[in-house]
């Protein structure tokens, strides 16, 4: 059995703590509030889960060190606005190599980080946590139902399948079925964005609209979340999975959902502030709006529902009038790709190795795309039929190189895709994603510049050819930047 430290004694953290303790694990729960520690230790009841009995074996503490030391996993279950500060307090007590499971859902508005990215960035601040593994656990899971042992399903997502599978083992029992997924970004994006659509669904019910409107919001809501996710490099299947449509259905249709409830109150005439007060707990959909609006603009994705909800919540737009405007938008097709593109993508991405297609993968920043890059891409493509580039995200590049790219991720991606060699670009945001990428995309050949010679030989154990191609002499992004800088200093 496992030792588990839980950060946060809210409804979801406590429902999971109870489940894990009943399965025989040793569970300690931290709360920042002395009042909660005392009350829960004594009464063995949680005010927001009145039917749940807290097992006697669960120990409550206000000392964060007690839940972060000597544990197999740390479960981060504080509301999203408190994730960064909680991890900052916990960092000194977290060992390198620790598995941290995050169940908080949201996107940090100023950094646009998902919650596991927030945790990673906070934990890396002291430079001694290079091997911490972050797993996102997300899906259609009302705490109220889990606390009563009702059948529930959830997704354990991590680039590192070993970590995802360990979490699957720990959380799986007769009431909880856990699926794994390598697309952690997609899983977390769904978890954050669905709360906004749930708000919309509540507003619609509050306005007196029926099931037709609800179904429309869920379907078109998922379609805009998917559009955004695909632009960010997430995998399409995630959006039709449990953390995607599964979680959206449960959040947008159930009155257990605070987002849905807050929306209902707003649709019935309350201001967002009044609704928040009435709900009494964090309304994650309202918190997620600023980040969603920034993502929409950053990735140039059309997201009419998110835009409309933001207008109602943050700009005082009238809910009924907003619905009318949505209904009167220009005509659209449900299918936004041409048939030839659809056939092309699905045949390439969903087919397995046995179709005879040879897939090549390479990684890099490819900033200020230059002839050295093109030389590499041309030779890489010649080694197979389909070339995938793992393109360093802006954050990853800045962290590794100490300075940002000249062109942002989206521009570098578009430049790569406009060459005749690159077929697909996915984000590279960690050193550990190569194995999951190789499995997911059925890679046959990994190509790296020869300054990496030997470093990736271990990947041959995963059935890929690892080929180091000689670099083109005398050109690099760094050199171009320096030469331009020097040129700027030369007087006319
Ligand atoms: N590359 C190459 N020949 C060069 C420069 C880069 O073959 N003259 C290859 C690298 O080996 C890598 C890919 O292009 O496989 C992307 O490299 P990247 O690091 O993005 O390019 P650099 O120009 O080396 O950038 P920097 O100076 O920032 O390291």
Roughly what fraction of the amino acids lie in strands?
5-15%
Q: Please describe the biggest sheet, giving its number of strands, its sense, and whether it closes into a barrel.
A: 8 strands, mixed
Strand order of the largest sheet: 3-2-1-4-5-6-7-8
How helical, in percent, are the residues?
A: 40-55%
What ligands are attached or bound here?
A: cytidine-5'-triphosphate
How many DSSP-defined strands?
Answer: 13
Assembly type of the shown chains?
Answer: single chain
Task: Note the total helix count.
Answer: 22
Which structural class is indicated by helix and strand composition? Answer: alpha/beta
Rounded to the nearest angstrom, the distance between the terminal CA atoms is: 73 Å
Instruction: Tell me the radius of gyration.
Output: 24 Å
Overall pLDDT: 92
Question: Which helices and strands, and how do they pair?
Answer:
Layout lengths: L2 E5 L3 H12 L3 E5 L3 H10 L15 E3 L2 H5 L4 E4 L6 H8 L8 E4 L12 H9 L9 E6 L4 H4 L5 E6 L3 H11 L4 E6 L2 H23 L4 H21 L4 H4 L2 H12 L4 H10 L4 H8 L4 H15 L5 H11 L4 H9 L11 H12 L8 E6 L6 H12 L3 E7 L1 H8 L7 H9 L6 E5 L5 H7 L4 E5 L15 E5 L7 H13 L3
Parallel strand pairs: 1-2, 1-4, 2-3, 4-5, 5-6, 7-8, 9-10, 9-12, 10-11, 12-13
Antiparallel strand pairs: 6-7
Helix pairs in contact: 4-5, 8-9, 8-11, 8-12, 8-14, 9-11, 12-13, 14-15, 15-16
């Amino acid at each position: 059995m496992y030792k588990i430290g839980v950060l946060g004694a809210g409804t979801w953290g406590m429902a999971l703590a109870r489940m894990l303790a009943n399965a025989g694990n040793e569970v300690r729960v931290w709360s920042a509030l002395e009042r909660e520690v005392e009350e829960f230790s004594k009464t063995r009841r949680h005010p927001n889960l009145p039917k749940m009995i807290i097992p006697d074996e669960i120990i409550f503490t206000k000392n964060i060190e007690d839940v972060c030391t000597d544990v197999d996993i740390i479960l981060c279950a504080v509301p999203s606005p408190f994730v960064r500060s909680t991890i900052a307090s916990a960092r000194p007590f977290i060992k390198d190599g620790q598995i941290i499971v995050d169940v908080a859902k949201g996107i940090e508005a100023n950094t646009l980080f998902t919650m596991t990215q927030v945790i990673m960035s906070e934990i890396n601040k002291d430079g001694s946590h290079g091997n911490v593994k972050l797993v996102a656990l997300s899906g259609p899971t009302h705490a109220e139902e889990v606390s009563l042992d009702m059948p529930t399903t959830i997704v354990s997502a991590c680039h590192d399948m070993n970590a995802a599978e360990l979490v699957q083992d720990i959380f799986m029992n007769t009431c909880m079925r856990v699926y794994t997924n390598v697309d952690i970004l997609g899983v977390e994006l769904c978890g954050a964005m669905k709360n906004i659509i749930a708000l919309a669904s509540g507003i619609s019910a509050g306005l007196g609209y029926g099931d037709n409107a609800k179904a429309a919001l869920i379907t078109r809501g998922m379609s805009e979340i998917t559009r955004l996710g695909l632009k960010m490099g997430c995998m399409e299947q995630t959006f039709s999975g449990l953390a995607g449509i599964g979680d959206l259905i449960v959040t947008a249709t159930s009155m257990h959902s605070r987002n849905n409830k807050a929306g209902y109150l707003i649709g019935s005439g309350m201001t967002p502030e009044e609704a928040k007060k009435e709900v009494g707990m964090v309304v994650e959909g309202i918190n997620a709006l600023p980040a969603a609006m920034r993502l929409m603009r950053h990735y140039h994705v059309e997201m009419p529902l998110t835009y409309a909800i933001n207008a109602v919540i943050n700009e005082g737009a009238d809910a009924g009038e907003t619905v009318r405007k949505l209904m009167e938008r220009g005509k659209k097709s449900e299918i936004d790709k041409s048939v030839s593109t659809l056939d092309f993508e699905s045949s390439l991405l969903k087919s397995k190795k046995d179709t005879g297609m040879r897939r090549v993968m390479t990684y890099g920043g490819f900033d200020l795309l230059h002839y050295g890059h093109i030389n590499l891409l041309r030779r890489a493509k010649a080694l197979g039929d389909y070339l995938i580039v793992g393109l360093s995200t802006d954050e990853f590049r800045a962290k590794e190189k100490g300075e940002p790219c000249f062109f942002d991720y989206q521009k570098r991606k578009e430049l790569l895709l406009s060459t005749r060699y690159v077929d697909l670009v996915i984000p590279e945001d960690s050193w550990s994603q190569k194995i999951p990428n190789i499995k997911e995309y059925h890679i046959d050949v990994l190509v790296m510049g020869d300054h990496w010679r030997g470093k990736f030989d271990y990947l041959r154990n995963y059935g890929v050819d690892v080929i180091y191609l000689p670099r083109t002499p005398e050109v690099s992004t760094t050199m171009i930047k320096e030469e331009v800088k020097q040129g700027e200093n030369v007087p006319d």
